[in-house]
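Re: weekly structure request thread

Next one in the queue (120 aa):
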Amino acid sequence: MKILLPLVCALALAAPLSAFSQAYAFKTTPSVARPGPGDKACKRPEYPKSSVRNGEEGTVTLEFVMNRDGAILEGKVLKSSGFVELDRTALVALAKCAFKFPEGKEEPASVILQYVWTLE
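Done, posted below.
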């Protein structure tokens, strides 16, 4: 019985912690919806200072849903770099860029891209 008690306690704590982490992730994901075509001079995102200090590098895969005039309806991280700050920074910065509506697609259309973070 002594062996089962820690297991039962761990299982009881797992659900609330999981729910908390999902709620926290939802609240920290910024909205990147924007009207209009965006910035044609798409600027390179600035490397987050905390990520530089921690030596964080990685590749984030993003998806932007857009309408025909280039407005971003939704943006999200499809595959994380493994670091929340790198993901968030890429998502927010690249949502400001102008994207060409894909030929032959119906509205709305998705644009999927990857951004590679590397320290020099």
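Strands lie at 58-66, 72-79, 109-117. Confidence is low (pLDDT under 50) at residues 1-27.
Next request, please.
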